[in-house]
Amino acid sequence: MCASQSGRLSGDGVFDLTRTAVVMADRAGVAQGWTKGAERLLGYAVSEAVGRPLAELFTGVAPAASQDNRWESRLAAADGWSGLEAVRHKDGHRLDLEFRVLPVLDATERSARLVLAAEMTQTPWSGASQSFLEGILGMSPIGVAMVNADLEFVWLNDALERMGGTSREQRLGKRLADIQPGLAVEALEAEMRKVLSTGTPSVGYEYLGRPQSDPEREHAYSTSFFRLEDEAGQVLGVCYMVLDVTESYRARQRMALLNKAGERIGSSLDVWQTAQELADAAVPDLADFVTVDLLDALLCGEEPTPGPVDAADLVTMRRAGQQSVREGCPEAVVAVGEATAYPPSAPVVLSLVEGNSALFQTLDLAAGGWAADDPVRAAHLRELGFHSLMVVPLRARGVFLGAATFARWQHTGPFQPDDLVLAEEFVTRAAISIDNARRYTREHNAALTLQHSLLPHDLPEQCAVEAAYRYLPADSLSGVGGDWFDVIPLSGARVALVVGDVVGHGVHAAATMGRLRAAVQALADLDLSPEEVLAHLDDMLNRVAHDANADDGVIGATCLYAVYDPVGCRCTLARAGHPAPLLISPTGNGRLLELPTGPPLGLGGMPFESVELPLPEGSLLALYTNGLLLGKALDLDGGITRLRTALAAPQAPLEDLCDTVIGGLPGGRPVDDVALLLARTRALAPAQLATWEIPADPSAVGQARRSAAGRLAEWDLEELEFSTELIVSELVTNAIRHASGPISLRMIRARALICEVSDSSSTSPHLRHARTTDEGGRGLFLIARYAERWGTRYTPQGKIIWAEQPLRSAAGAGPANDLSALLDGLDDPAAPFTGAEGR
């Protein structure tokens, strides 16, 4: 018979006592107690039923003559009676009932009869050969008992006798506290008294306890109580039904623990934190003490090999997390972060080597097995009273990462196979999170290493601006970004200032940033205008996007490119979707520069525009990426205000200003990478410049040499006279021979000696080896041998050919005017082109 629906009074099953008549009768067959269920079933109120014979209350539909003595024989049966009978409701309609008559003995051995009746249409086995009461009271797994007003047992069925582990004789006349001290007795008796006093049934009351039938294991029970009354409404006692719901309770507990573990484990991409979260989630609900040990190679960033672990690799493991019900984890032999070692016979080692979980329901810590190989640890565990152990390897994607150990020392009973299944679920979730964290950390570190290797480590020497920078990586959730900056010395003592930001994060963004930075430096060496540089970068990104894998995501970037000339104190700027720079005047007034907003790099098809602005000496130019402005609140205006406030004192040291700007970021670390480049403009003094207009006459070459030599004497640079006269002579001669229009010569004394010859031609000269029979073609070769850098710069009026020499000759280079060495080099076609690497 099925009794699974019998645990609650409000149900529709056969054990629904709200639809069952429960009647107490004496040996004479007179009703002494009448329940609400009896009233609902037969229609008689308590006042009408109590004191009347059962034959009148259960009036049969058959002729009265054949029913006169039917109840007399039923009540007289020593073992009770069960059967089926059709009776009349108070209003006369027919009821097909199943009956059970049970003899009841109280503490004084006075005999009474308990009559149970239920309508056959309400029972799931209507028409069965046995009474439903026989199933309830004899074969059902539901325990049924009756206690009097003093909560002393007066009756119980076989199921309750088996469930509690105490016989009927031991229970009768005693209270629950006397026979089942391992249950929640006080709470149960309080619930009974509540039902006794209010008359309101208590349905589905759940509690935990250790019955005498199984004192080593905690059980869960669901119990329903209802009150019994006599004809005068006097309370007789309480009848209760109890069902052992341990398995369903444990299943709910396991599900709740798994949900809890799912919420707690893997909240971050940190290996150490995830391991600790596993230990925290398992204590105290599953175990009293938990340790998580990870392979040391994994924590060092090495890639673990698939499959079970070699025992030799377990020499070095590291404690990554632990938790205990005792404060301070006194069970731990090592602290978190320290190396831990196990003998080859230890359960942790065997579990990892064999690749399987291990359950030790009864932990043997005697002087044998692994305890003999690790006596210190075994003695420690023995002293603390450990009696049950589980070891589960951490495995994710076929790779073993370490092992988790679960132990019990409290009297909660040994671990069961279901506990091992639950522990494996815990560890599986943690292993996936740890492996994700490990992979993320490795990729994040690789991206950081790549990004840092691609960013400038030190700013180059130049005389155009005083510069300082800060780079702040984003938080670990966003990953490394593609922000970059650069300060690039240009010809003519100019400097290029660059800030950019690649779309996205991770290794791909860092690699794209490296490509862009290398391209910017190459384009800057060509002395292109800012808008031309951005156009070439846009074309490059379009080619990269066309060749890229679709999995790489969107390829795009923003960029700001500025060129500052300290001779004229003018700056030319262009931007591609990048935030406008902030300019702070020498007096402290700040404003965003109004620049044409070009499209971000990678869109293609749109032109870029540049703007030329005067920047007085001492002006402060702030270039930055949007991570500096957009915090977690995404407040652009607030970011501009913070930056302007931080730079309110433009003459302060740039390093201090950088610290002030970064220190004012809200919320600690930003959500996106921050690149900040501050540049304070300088101006070259007129005494550092010299300019001459050169007539288009070959005889003017000698005068140009003499003018250059005179200025070198004023600058105290006579040691450069020979090489400078040679460079000036060659550049001016080439301009007179091959160019047209006005020709000018300019010399700049900055960090290097710069010689520039400008003309109106757009033809660029090329360096080549002249044959021994050629009359010319050696001029640029001579310049390359003596100049540190040289090249061509185009202007709207034509071009400028320039050459730079260090202010002092390099040590060991020999005298600058060693003509014999020069001639030897001219005769040697394989002679190196010293200084020609730039152009």
TrEMBL record:
Keywords of this entry: ATP-binding, Hydrolase, Kinase, Magnesium, Manganese, Metal-binding, Nucleotide-binding, Phosphoprotein, Protein phosphatase, Transferase
Domain PAS: 14-58, 129-199
Annotated EC: 3.1.3.16
Catalyzed reaction equations: O-phospho-L-seryl-[protein] + H2O = L-seryl-[protein] + phosphate
Nucleotide-binding is among the record's keywords: yes
Top EC class for this record: hydrolase
Transport among keywords: no
Classification via PROSITE patterns: PAS
SMART domains hit by this protein: GAF, PAS, PP2C_SIG
GO molecular function, one term: kinase activity
Regions that span the bilayer: none
Function text: Primarily acts as an independent SigF regulator that is sensitive to the osmosensory signal, mediating the cross talk of PknD with the SigF regulon. Possesses both phosphatase and kinase activities. The kinase domain functions as a classic anti-sigma factor-like kinase to phosphorylate the anti-anti-sigma factor domain at the canonical regulatory site, and the phosphatase domain antagonizes this activity.
Name this polypeptide is given: protein-serine/threonine phosphatase
